[in-house]
Amino acid sequence: MVNILPFFMGHRGSPGQEGVSQMGLGMAIAASMVVLTRFQQFLLNHLHGYLERFIRKLFKSMDPNVQIRFTEDSTDGSGPRNYEAYAAVETYLSAKCSGQAPSLKANSVRDIGNPVLCVDVGEGVSDEFNGVKVWWSLVEEEEKGNAYRGARKTRYYALKFPKRYRETVVGEYLRHVMEEGKAVVAMNRQLKLYSNTSSDDGDYWNYIMDFNHPAKFETLAMEKERKQDIIDDLIRFSTGREYYRRIGKPWKRGYLLHGPPGTGKSTMIAAMANLLSYDIYDLELTAVRSNAALKRLMNRIPCNSILVIEDIDCSSEITNQREKNNQGDEGARKKREKVTLSGLLNCIDGLFSANDGGRLIVFTTNHVGVLDLALLRTGRMDKHIEMSYCGFEAFRILAKNYLGIEEHELFGRIEELLKESSITPADVGENLIAGSGKGEDCGEDCLNKLIQVLEKKQREEEVNKLSIQALVKKPRDGDGDGDEVEAEEGENEECK
Ligand SMILES: Nc1ncnc2c1ncn2[C@@H]1O[C@H](COP(=O)(O)OP(=O)(O)OP(=O)(O)O)[C@@H](O)[C@H]1O
Ligand SMILES: [Mg+2]
């Protein structure tokens, strides 16, 4: 470069001087050219960025549509909030896209057991809400790295809609998408079972296992009308956010399931959890050390859960003991049980729910008669459900479940026998199970076997009835007026 400069400059001088001055000038020009190039580069870079932004803005202002992004990972530290919105959009779109998008991908969304079908990267689907048409697409972009992190890919759902509908879309439509999406996430998520029994002192909840009980209302043996009434009540409760807010009551509901062993109380709880997609918190009252510990446990039950207290009659302190507690005798009280009835009542009353979801409390008992009336009243146990011996309607459901038989000539005889003898759905199921999956002939064998069992039961019940009648009639020693035998005697034996 130095050698050709004099030629360009047309400079002449003595060879010695010339050489020195030429070199100095050359260096100055070279330096200025470097500066110029750098400046040019700087200008280009910045102008380019500026121009690009300017052009983008220009196009944006001319674009009649608005775009909103729902990013998978937050770059602003908002973390799970962003993800929640992204997952809600994803699940909402999964219902829309199956018929529209040419390419789908199966995604596993956090907390959801089954994969959901979503649009693939670069694909889009349209949606319509109150007459407004919107477009969704899944976009993947490469984000440049900086001094703190390397380059990475970001994914987002882009929602595009005409500017003039901004108010409807940002207000009503997005609320609709979030609510629907979150409801799908909630309905499909893996249910969990917690209990206080596996902790050392019973004062804490422990995760026991994923809850995969197959029970459904559809297969629960019970009269159709009663079953539908329970389903309606549960749905009304679980969707009652506005209602509970309006009347100013905590979003909770108490159920009491009572009936003999084997009539389906626990099975119904499982069906309830599956219907509502609620986790189960199984409380073993006798393992709780004090009223204060009970309160702690209750306060830790999240919304959208079922608190289950099984065999509440077997916690003797909880039954008709309130009066006894009030009478004092502190030492004896301490020796008995740790949680008192009033402690339990206070906890149930104090179980509040923020407006983000409901809490269901389900008690079961085999002996409803021994429970304190304070526990049974509305507000604590709002709905009492009697689980009874198997009637003909319930039998038909079991025959369909176990044998796949909906009609049979032996049904008439079974209907007659079920009216006269008490058999639990558990026992009916036990007699039908042998024929399950073995075809119609085997089904008939099972029905015949069930008839024999029912006839035997009928005979036994007849003998029992006669012997009780004989006892009632028989005068007691030294007492000629024939007092009646106390039928309830020993009723609560198994709980003592
Ligand atoms: N109503 C019913 N519908 C369908 N299956 C039932 C029903 N009742 C009982 N069963 C069957 O009998 C078995 C026992 O029922 P479950 O444990 O629900 O009775 P339970 O009322 O909770 O008894 P317990 O009072 O002894 O706890 C269940 O596994 C289920 O298969
Ligand atoms: Mg049970």
How much helix is in the residues?
A: 40-55%
Number of helices: 16
Query: Can you write the helix and strand succession as a string?
Result: HHEHEEEEEHEEHHEHEHEHHHEHEHHHH
Largest sheet: 7 strands, mixed
CATH class of the largest domain: Alpha Beta
Poorly predicted parts: 1-15, 74-80, 480-496
Widest sheet: strand ordering: 8-7-10-11-12-9-13
CATH architecture of the largest domain: 3-Layer(aba) Sandwich
The average pLDDT value, as a whole number, equals 78
**End-to-end distance:** 108 Å
State the CATH topology of the largest domain: Rossmann fold
- Provide the structure class: alpha/beta
Report what the structure shows.
With 496 residues, the chain is of the alpha/beta class. The chain has 3 domains: 65-188, no CATH class; 192-386, 3-Layer(aba) Sandwich (Rossmann fold); 392-473, no CATH class. The chain is 46% helix and 16% strand. It has helices at 5-9, 15-62, 80-97, 166-188, 224-238, 241-247, 265-276, 291-299, 322-326, 330-335, 341-350, 373-376, 392-403, 411-420, 425-432, 440-473; strands spanning 65-71, 104-107, 116-119, 124-129, 132-143, 152-162, 192-195, 206-210, 252-258, 279-282, 305-309, 359-365, 383-386. The strands form 3 sheets. It has a 7-stranded mixed sheet with strand order 8-7-10-11-12-9-13, covered by helices on one side. The chain has a 4-stranded antiparallel sheet with strand order 1-6-5-4. The chain has a two-stranded antiparallel ribbon with strand order 2-3. The protein starts with a helix and ends in a 23-residue tail after the last helix. Mean pLDDT is 78; it is low at 1-15, 74-80 and 480-496. Adenosine-5'-triphosphate binds at residues 220-222, 261-267, 366, 387, 425-426, 429.
